[in-house]
Amino acid sequence: MTHKEVAQYTLEALKKAGADKAACRVSKGRKDEFNIEANKFSLLRTLFNDSLNIKVIKDGRKGVMQINKLDKDSIIEAVAGCIALTTSAVPDEAEDIAEKGENKNFDMNIGGASMDTLFSRTKDFLGQVRDEFPKIILEGMMTDFNSAKTVYVNSNGVEFNIDSEYYGINTMFSAKDGEKSSSFNYMGACLSSLDKPFMDIDMQRTLLEESVKSLDTRMIDGKFVGKVIVTPACSDMIWDTLLGCFLSDRPLVEGTSRWKDSLGTKVADSKLTMRASPHHPDIIAGERFTVDGYESKDFDLIKDGVLNSFALSLYGANKTGKPRAANTAYDNIEVVAGNTPLAEIIKGIDKGVLLNRFSGAAPSASGDISGVAKNSFYIENGKVTEALKETMVSFNIVDVLQKIVAISSERCVNGYTILPWCCFDGITISGGEPRP
């Protein structure tokens, strides 16, 4: 069966099994990939990725199931299992599926794979790393071409179809010189073409250079409150935390979000505009329909510092009575560029940190965050100096959003996100005991 035939077959089976409402998403995908380990090609393989996601509502009770086989016997077994799950679920009036809208087809193909070019770009990158960064060890690298045909249907008559293709690259690396070694770092990108060398992807060369510089580190003496520049490589510390702790279903349904009553109010410095932008031309293979069955549209989460929208799914919106978000593409975050070049931001800092990676515990519900700065650098007297060793950064994210010093005019585009360098004040930076 084709992916569309699988979807219709599954939907009819769910209805016959007694579902009041049902939805399914079927995808048939293929990945052709090159793998590199320790600076050498290690594997060429092709993976076929089939998946069927089912959601059913019966008597107000939800059942969900995912399988990776698309034959009729597997589908019938999954349908029966999904219906059975509803019998033990708690009734919840907030559970629902999208109402009928305009059905659409989305063509996101890029002209098919050029595996010869992908191999050449990968080989050239290995050569550049060897020649330009002899101390770098590529612990792992994967380059691939991905294609998929996906359909979403539900019992209200919704249907979306997507044909998509894109290239991907992921690198994980560290530097080594004798007994010295740096902390590992990584970079990932999603590409619509192979027009430029992988070394020229935003931040790739910079992160390699900084790994080499991180072979020699210093520990900051004592503790101070200062400024931290969060780079695009450290997107999880700020932007993912906002989504996870304040804007998405769980914190709003549970009532733990400090912003639960802040819609339409100022929650950040007016310099900040943060968007979910799956349709931005620099976002590759962005979401076109939500997991609930709505067409995805770009929207502002925070606009000029004002909370413009939560990131609620249909369930979260029904549960809280707050508006549903226009998409669920929270991997496709865009932060609008500022007016200050990064070099000027750095010049204005007497003591601070350039933060590339953060290792810490999950943020608290209050927004308190604490962890170790990794692959990061000390800023002193307007210059980026040594790499940092065992340096803690601690702050409350709600507070520091009101203390944005500057947002860079430059942005890093990696096909997933579009992010600038953002400088925050009021962050506690802790090193070792002061020297006598």
Describe this structure in words.
There is one protein chain. This protein is an alpha+beta fold. It has helices spanning 3-16, 72-88, 115-132, 204-213, 235-247, 249-253, 314-320, 342-347, 397-400, and strands at residues 21-37, 40-58, 61-67, 104-108, 136-154, 159-177, 180-181, 185-191, 217-218, 223-230, 274-276, 299-303, 306-307, 333-335, 351-355, 357-360, 368-374, 377-380, 383-388, 391-396, 404-413, 418-430. The strands form 3 sheets. Strands 9, 10, 15, 16, 17, 18, 19, 20, 21 and 22 form a 10-stranded mixed sheet that branches. Strands 1, 2, 3, 4, 5, 6, 7 and 8 form an 8-stranded mixed sheet that branches. It has a 4-stranded antiparallel sheet with strand order 13-12-11-14, with no helix packed on it. A hairpin with a 2-residue loop joins strand 2 (40-58) and strand 3 (61-67). It is globular, with a radius of gyration of 24 Å. The mean pLDDT is 94.
In short:
With 436 residues, the protein is of the alpha+beta class.
Q: Regions with pLDDT < 50 over 5+ consecutive residues? A: none
The whole-angstrom Rg is 24 Å
Task: Please give the largest β-sheet.
Answer: 10 strands, mixed
How many β-strand runs? 22
SSE layout:
Elements: H1 3-16, E1 21-37, E2 40-58, E3 61-67, H2 72-88, E4 104-108, H3 115-132, E5 136-154, E6 159-177, E7 180-181, E8 185-191, H4 204-213, E9 217-218, E10 223-230, H5 235-247, H6 249-253, E11 274-276, E12 299-303, E13 306-307, H7 314-320, E14 333-335, H8 342-347, E15 351-355, E16 357-360, E17 368-374, E18 377-380, E19 383-388, E20 391-396, H9 397-400, E21 404-413, E22 418-430
Parallel strand pairs: 4-6, 9-19, 10-15
Antiparallel strand pairs: 1-2, 1-5, 2-3, 5-6, 6-7, 6-8, 10-22, 11-12, 11-14, 12-13, 15-18, 16-17, 17-20, 18-19, 20-22, 21-22
Helix pairs in contact: 1-2
